[in-house]
Amino acid sequence: xxxxxxxxxxxxxxxxxxxxxxxALVPAFFLDGFSVLGTHLTWLCVCSVCVATLxxxxxxxxxPSQSPKRSSFAHKISRFLKCCIYFFMSCxxxxxxxxxxxxxxxxxVTETFLFAVLLxxxxxxxxxxxxxxxxxxxxxxxxxxxxxxxxxxxxxxxTVCSILGAWFGAFPIxxxxxxxxxxxxxxxxxxxxxxxxxxxxxAPLWIHWNRKQLTYKSR
Amino acid sequence: xxxxxxxxxQRWPVVLFLAWVCLLFFAGIGxxxxxxxxxxxxxxxxxxxxxxxxxxxxxRQSLPPGSCWAPQRFSKAVLIIxxxxxxxxxxxDPAKVSPLPYENKLGVLYQLATSQPRHARLYRFRAxxxxxxxxxxxGLTTGSLPTFIDVGSNFASYAIxxxxxxxxxxxxxxxxxxxxxxTWEGLFPKKFFRSYFFPSFNVxxxxxxxxxxxxxxxPTVDSGEWDVLIAHFLGVDHCGHxxxxxxxxxxxxxxxxxxxLRSLVDHLGNDTLLLVAGDHGMTETGDHGxxxxxxxxxxxxxxxxxxLFGSGPPEEPETIPQVNLVPTVALLLGVPIPYSNIGEVMAxxxxxxxxxVSAALQQLSVYHINAKQVDRFLQSYSLVAQDLPAEQxxxxxxxxxxxxxxxxxxxxxxxxxxxxxxxxESRLGGLIGRFQRYLREARAVCTxxxxxxxxxxxxGGCILIASSCLLCYMASELAASSHSFYRSCxxxxxxxxxxxxxxxGLAHVFTQEGLDLLLVSSWAAAASQLGFFWHWWGQHPKRxxxxxxxxxxxxxxxxxxxxxxxxxxxxxxxxxxxxxxxFSDSFVVAEARVTPFLLASLVMLLVGxxxxxxxxxxxxxxxxxxxxxSSYRREIWYLLCLVAMLLVCVRLSxxxxxxxxxxxxxxxSVFLSPLASLRSTRAKNxxxxxxxxxxxGLVYAVQSWLRHYGNLNSSDPLVLFVRWGFPLVxxxxxxYWAVASSADDSLGKxxxxxxxxxxxxxxxxxGLASVGLLLLLCNPMTVFAKDTRESAGSIVTPYxxxxxxxxxxxxxxxxxxxxxxxxxKNRLERGSCRATVAAYGxxxxxxxxxxxxxxxxxxxxxxxxxERLSFAFLLLFMEAFxxxxxxxxxxxxxxxxxxxxxxxxISWILAASQFFYSTGHQPIFPAIHWNAAFVGFHLDHSxxxxxxxxxxxxxxxxxxxxxxxxxxxxxxxxxxxMSSSQxxxxxxxxxxxxxxxxEHMMEMRLRESPEKFSTALLRLxxxxxxxxxxxxxxxxxxxxxxxxHLMVWKVFAPKFLFESLGFVVSSICLLLGISLVMxxxxxxxxxxSQLRLR
Lengths: 219, 1094
Known about the structure:
The complex is a heterodimer of chains A (219) and B (1094). With 219 residues, chain A is an all-alpha fold. Helix content of chain A is 69%, strand content 0%. Mean pLDDT of chain B is 83; it is low at 1-6, 545-555, 620-630, 790-809, 831-835 and 980-999. By secondary structure, chain B is mainly alpha-helical. Chain B is built from 38 helices and 12 strands. Chain B is elongated. Chain A binds chain B through residues 97, 99-102, 136-137, 139-140, 142-145, 167, 170, 174-176, 178, 219, and chain B through 204, 584-587, 589-590, 593-594, 596-597, 600-601, 611-614, 617, 628-630, 632, 647-648, 650-651, 654. Chain A: InterPro entries: GPI_biosynthesis_protein_Pig-F. Chain A: Keywords: Endoplasmic reticulum, GPI-anchor biosynthesis, Membrane, Transmembrane, Transmembrane helix. Chain A: It is found in: Endoplasmic reticulum membrane. Chain A: One of its GO terms (cellular component) is endoplasmic reticulum membrane.
């Protein structure tokens, strides 16, 4: 049972990783002069949209969190609206945190905001998919021994990896190498993306290796 | 008689231990500095035409018009400086079959030298380290050896203050035209008749400077409106930095230079001297700055259309030091040699066309002038500085006087034609040799003391600092309050150090060598460190056995130890990043943004980690477990708000940054300029009102904090000062700002009054602040005791007479508390006020003293900064306050009391360095706020001490405040104990009354266990010193390892200097802060004993 689930997780994560790679390559065939560095804003949009859609589809297909009771249509709608509001709020929050960390306040607001959207896609959107608009559950998942399924463990790992990637991505900015990718926010968004991809790959492997130690509390 | 005193904490050992550790660090810094920083004193004197050292009158009469000191040989000169022209670039070897990109490119030099051997010659041109362009330009014009710090009259600009070739040329009416590197603009402001400067900063740009020069060079040469033309090409150097010498670009660049020289030679007239020089060489990677063979080996080429040399060139090009160019050019052009020159004339250029005897006489006369000038310089230098060894100076003096004596004799004999040519020739040759020897030895003496790194000393300094750091770490882990600890870890090491120093002193007495104080102190420091480690090693096994009952890290399973180690790894990781950033010039330049980033990350990580470990949740009840939620402590929202406030403070503080020239697009903050510079009166008034309101707000905040904790009730002088003196200080500062920022011309008659007021108000602030600090030292108790006991008997302790043991001591304080508690209970029950001692503000007595001291210091430092930087100070106080409040609940969750965790110390120090930048400073000399030296003074300092203190206080303001406030990290959790537990209580009782209930002992808990208190203070101090020391160590290592780096003199060396000065200031202020706490403790002890006696 568990082996099969890990395999499903691996497949889902690999799909996500492949979609990110495709998001960097495919648009070049349709858009003139598209490149990750040159038209960074476009890439940010494309990547966020790709990852978001894929995540939602995967969630609908795989249904990792079995909700015990069936809910009404109205309930579903309100849930969806709540999710949207949460996502938007998380974008604003990420934007604020990035600015507080030293990003320019007025210049390149669009870049900063899209970077915040990307980060939200990598982190908040997954939480929304898996846990719903339930902050208490989020808080539970992000504490030691808080994960209750391998999906939640994977969520922990990818989220932390994306944020760490974004954090490390800020390191090369002050260097005097004059490379195009040192411009704000390219190195950070690339860092976040690589971190997310690394998280996607690490998560199933780590769960596989630690499957003996991982004992999830059943609800 | 009751002569009971409360249990004593060990005050002196703690302070002594910290002072000893500080001294160890100072010895390391001193040792490193003596090996790394080459210093020299600049003399203000300059040579002039009428100096008495010119030749005897009979020779002087023959001087042609327009000549000084020696007859002018050329009326014009062109100096082409090709930056980083390595000797190998200029050499041409026709036998080479396949030359490297940089070889055989300057063919024109070879052609000229072979076709006209008496007109042209190539030399090896040895540069003196440091081989950075600015230092080399200084060397090439002053004839001296510029060091990193040329102690002159003015630090604020790079302009050369010393006498130099350009100054001499201008003084003697020559027109100097310059084109090229804009470094010269800063070095010689307003010296040029005409100038074309091009930006030198962008190392990646190979062509802007060169193309700019080429555009102007030939028209200027042809116009004839110049006497000396200097062109400084940068392309070769930039090409080296960008591509390295072994690259096709270098071939192109050198070919371009070749073409330039070829056509330039065609444009020259007969009376023009052409000099082509490299200011330094380059390494294989294209860098320079150090003293390796490749870096110092530059090229010099001399050419003129009239014959210059008496004979053909030697086989192998001669090697001459760079400074030799200065006297040679000066005398060839007929101007005086610059005062501080230590170069030797290139005699072969003075031989002329005559026979050997007249040539030798000519050479002798220039040598004579040169030697006299060098002797004059050495004498005046030895009067102001002692860094040249006396016995060597003595030896040089003897050499000089004997040579001069022989010179006079010989001249007299030549006058009387008593000598025949062969003998004359040999005697002339001999005398020239003696002058040469004198000049070379003089230069060698100067080089030895000014231009050489001492690698051994640098490594020694590094090792001393590193082992001091290790010592700090180990002692902070092991410190205990037992006597044996102080004996083995303080007393014995000190004895070891003394013995080491004494042995060295004895050795010196026997060997009769000069005693170098620095060396002795560093050997003593090393010996005492050895002593520490030796005794620590001896104690170690015993300690682990003893400490078995309460082990911090020692026992427990490997997993537990790993966890403890991981917990340590997270704040240390941030510290590691901070230290690593010192090794990259880009990160040092961007440090103003790096530190806030790391600080924010540290705090966010801390909260994240606490959450991850589940410390923020309360243990789950069965009901909550069912729901799958975990409920939260109420603190979490409070904590998150605090973190948000901290982030906002950190971000806002970045609006006060100063700029460095390395970031050209940066604009300095508008808040840095004084109010007086504002044009609009409205904006000025608005800002002024804001600043004053801010000061008043600060006073109000401090007073209400003190009132909240009951420290503002007594009628002691200190409390009165806080009540009335603080507003007075603010009033004085406000008046000073008003006077200083008013427009000068609008006041008319009041001008004189303003002049007085500008002096009086700062002095009033200085006076008031020192009165406040003195009061604080004399009686730091801010406690109001209401003694309503009926008789002294009610609180008599059961111990009569002198206590027999320490155990008895320990009983006394709880006894008093018990009494107080009982009486309180009685009072509450019966509603009567019998037999109580109500001590208002006893619970925060330590912090109150520190807060008062910090506020006073803050006022002083704000006075020294420009008005609008008081916003930055407000942010500083707020951030410190927020940090303390974040630390308080976290400390309660994480650690046992009496120990300050690492993350708190590291965040405190990160905040200190963040506010170094946010108060408008940068670790470079032009960014120092020199104005601070004249707050309260009228440009008339009799000594250098006061301005140094004022400027130092201005520069290290944040270091001072944070270091003095460091003990608050330990005290704050105790102070806040009340406010957290108060919430649970109904608020019926007034706050003051609550404080003396026994549950709210606050800082008196510290007094209850004095040994733990002193240990905690010692550990806190050691941790603080360790973190500071780690940063310093990183700086020192960066400066040592990267001493050949392009940016060493612009980035790493100033950073090292500022960091080490900051370390010294911080450590002294840390000692002062801890001593203040000790002083308060003394006062509390006497207060208690008086209370008991009453």
